[in-house]
Specification:
The complex is a heterodimer of chains A (235) and B (412). Chain A contains eleven helices and no strands. Chain A has 235 residues and is an all-alpha fold. In chain A, helix 4 crosses helix 5 and helix 4 crosses helix 6. The two termini of chain A are 26 Å apart. Chain B is mainly alpha-helical and 412 residues long. Chain B is globular and about 70 Å long. The chains are: A mainly alpha (235), B mainly alpha (412). Chains A and B meet through helix 1, helix 3, helix 5 and helix 6 of A and helix 9 of B. Chain A: It holds the Pfam family Cytochrom_C.
């Protein structure tokens, strides 16, 4: 383990040196992160804005810490999506961090909110869950962690805007079936396990209809206290 | 006064001996760690997100799943009670301390070449790492493979016990390379045809083969038509082994794992020795006649569709003439790993894309996107047929069925 730490320290130094040397020869690919993540963009869009595939998530503007946690989880197989598990398998931590920061720093516009396919009642139930939760069934309000504006908080809580309903449902389902796990204590696993199928449909549908707020940057760390502890959000 | 001084001196001498012994000991441990890297023990004995060398990693085989052992010095669940003799017996003879037979998924058929001194150094290193109390998970092998006596048959056919014997007609450097490649590097475990019994016969060593369960083709290291390195420069070979990329080609799939966990840590002298040996064993083989299973008219249609697909999706990185921007965007023209008889690897590269491993020498590699979701079976076959035959490449066209079959190949 020691040697590994030493190796990654060496990497950081090399990366830093690398950053400075912007020398570019015509016969080399551009020395930029954009060129290095071309393997990602057919699925996530050139600036991480997402693509027409409703299951391929937007990455742009999410907190870098959150994106980094996801890349670590895909690399180790703790979060499963074989095409990504495979791509990331032999990439070192500092490089995953650089990828996370690259997409966190991109700010393409949010897509217009999707027209909803569910009834008004279902949307109202979704809004209720997201903004107030259901104390009787032990469901905390989503906004209690994802923020009053649903824009997330640095470094580990993602915003929930700009995602489409099928993707949100799939993620909540993945937590329930254990194919997605986050750092322990995995608060989202607890939240998802209290939701019924109907709850998931409702809250996913409502979230997908939210318009973009003026300021959609994640708020600073510690702006509010979480309703309960999450391993991916250090206090 | 005099006697006090001599007592003090004696004590000092004793202290320095202890210090020297410790120094010597830590030298041995450091060497053992280096050799454990060269043997890539971690690839199998450390589970994803698991503790170092605590085992428990699943190894799927055609006969069922094996789970690797805990080789930390924990006395209950690891090898804490083993002696250096016990350890050497495992490495050299493929037997447990009680004489029981070890499955050849533990590459003792290669490690048998390791010297006693190197085995002892690896053992000293393993004794120095933190013990982890984690029970070995029982293997899940199907009948009759769950019977260890069957290993006897395998051993008779494929195992010849014995330390590496240097070839006196060759240089020290060549012999050092041979020792690493044939021994700790266990390169032959993948780069040899695997027969139904899961063994590698001596005469087929390094002749290449499809890795079972993983569906990657490990090319021959002796034929210049495959990964034989006869016409590579030493620098291109050492670049490939140490950094994962080179002016001639890049590593991917299981070979990316080998570079990532093992080869990148070898020093320049050892890497060069391996390169010299690998270049030396390449045979100037006469090319076998190109044979394609596809009728001519079908192949020429495929290839013209392939050019369209290539210019649209691939030329931005690999160049309109397949020249690439080496080493990061590998050349496809005159790239052996595309022209081989087996088209498994280029088809899988197009379907799955990939990143070479991040290494000390190449910490932020460039990547290739997967095209599985963007191209139909026919388009995949077309573009692979095109790159295998364009720009003077001497491969053969592939069919849409071959492309389709590899869509379900496992990705890990």
């Amino acid at each position: 383990m020691l040697a590994r730490t030493a190796a990654s320290a060496a990497l950081v130094v090399t990366l830093a040196a690398f950053d400075g040397a912007a020398a570019q020869t015509a016969n080399q690919p551009p020395d930029t992160m954009a060129a290095r993540v071309e393997a990602c963009t057919p699925c996530h869009g050139n600036k991480g804005e997402g693509t027409s595939d409703v299951y391929f998530p937007r990455l742009a503007g999410k907190p870098a810490g959150y994106l980094y946690n996801q890349l670590l989880a895909f690399r180790s197989g703790r979060r499963k999506y074989p095409p990504m598990n495979y791509l990331l398998e032999f990439l070192p931590d500092p490089y995953l961090q650089a990828m996370a920061e690259y997409f966190a720093g991109e700010h393409p516009p949010l897509p217009p909110p999707a027209p909803s396919e569910v009834s008004k009642d279902v949307l109202a139930q979704g809004e209720q869950l997201a903004t107030s939760g259901d104390a009787g069934r032990n469901i905390p309000a989503c906004v209690s962690c994802h923020g009053p504006g649903l824009t997330g908080m640095q470094p580990g809580i993602p915003g929930l805007l700009g995602l489409r309903a099928p993707y949100i449902s799939a993620q909540l389902g993945a937590w329930r079936y254990g194919t997605r796990t986050a750092k322990s204590p995995d608060c989202m696993q607890v939240v998802a396990s209290h939701l019924t199928e109907a709850d998931v449909t409702a809250v996913a549908a409502w979230l997908a209809t939210r318009p973009a707020p003026d300021n959609r940057a994640p708020v600073a760390k510690g702006t509010y206290a979480l309703s309960f502890g999450c391993g991916s959000q250090p206090n | 006064m005099g006697s006090k001084l001599s007592i003090a001196l004696l004590a000092l001498a004793a202290l320095t001996t202890v210090a020297r012994a410790q120094d010597k000991n830590s030298d041995v441990i450091a060497r053992g760690e280096y050799l454990a890297r060269a043997g890539d023990c971690t690839a199998c004995h450390t589970a994803p997100e698991g503790r170092l060398f605590a085992g428990g990693r699943a190894m799927p085989t055609p006969f069922g799943t094996l789970y690797t052992s805990n080789i930390t010095p924990d006395p209950e669940t690891g090898i804490g009670k083993w002696s250096a003799d016990d350890f050497y017996k495992t490495m050299h003879s493929g037997r447990f301390p009680d004489g029981g037979l070890i499955y050849p998924a533990m590459p003792f058929a290669s490690y048998t070449k390791v010297t006693r001194a190197d085995s002892d150094a690896i053992f000293a290193y393993l004794r120095s790492i933190p013990p982890v109390n984690q029970k070995n998970r029982p293997h899940e092998l199907r009948f009759p493979y769950d019977n260890r006596q069957l290993i006897l048959g395998w051993r008779t056919l494929f195992f010849s016990e014995g330390e590496f014997k240097p070839d006196p007609t060759k240089s020290d450097e060549w012999n050092r390379g041979a020792y690493l490649v044939e021994g700790l590097g266990h390169c032959g475990m993948c780069h040899s045809p695997i027969n139904a019994l899961g063994g590698t016969s001596q005469s087929d060593a390094f002749k290449g083969g499809l890795i079972p369960m993983q569906n990657w083709y490990a090319p021959s290291l002796t034929s210049n038509r495959e990964a034989g390195l006869g016409d590579w420069s030493i620098k291109d070979i050492t670049d490939l082994l140490q950094t994962g990329v080179s002016a001639r080609g890049v590593v991917y799939g299981p070979m990316a794992e080998v570079v990532h966990n093992s080869l990148q840590y070898l020093n320049d002298a050892d890497t060069k020795a391996m390169a010299v040996y690998l270049k030396g064993i390449a045979e100037a083989s006469s090319p076998p006649p190109a044979s394609s299973t596809l009728p001519n008219t079908e192949s020429s249609l495929l290839i013209s569709l392939g050019k369209t697909v290539y210019d649209k999706n691939c030329a931005s990185c690999h160049g309109t003439q397949g020249e690439g921007k080496p080493p990061h965007w590998p050349p496809l023209a005159n790239n052996q790993s595309i022209e081989m008889q087996s088209a498994v690897n280029p088809i899988r590269m197009v379907l799955n894309g990939g990143y070479p491993p991040g290494t000390k020498g190449n910490p932020m590699p460039y990547g290739m996107p997967p095209f599985a979701g963007l191209l139909s079976d026919n388009e995949v076959a077309a573009v692979v047929s095109y790159i295998r035959t364009a720009w003077g490449n001497r491969g053969t066209p592939v069919s849409a069925r071959e492309a389709n079959e590899l869509r379900s190949a496992p990705l890990n």
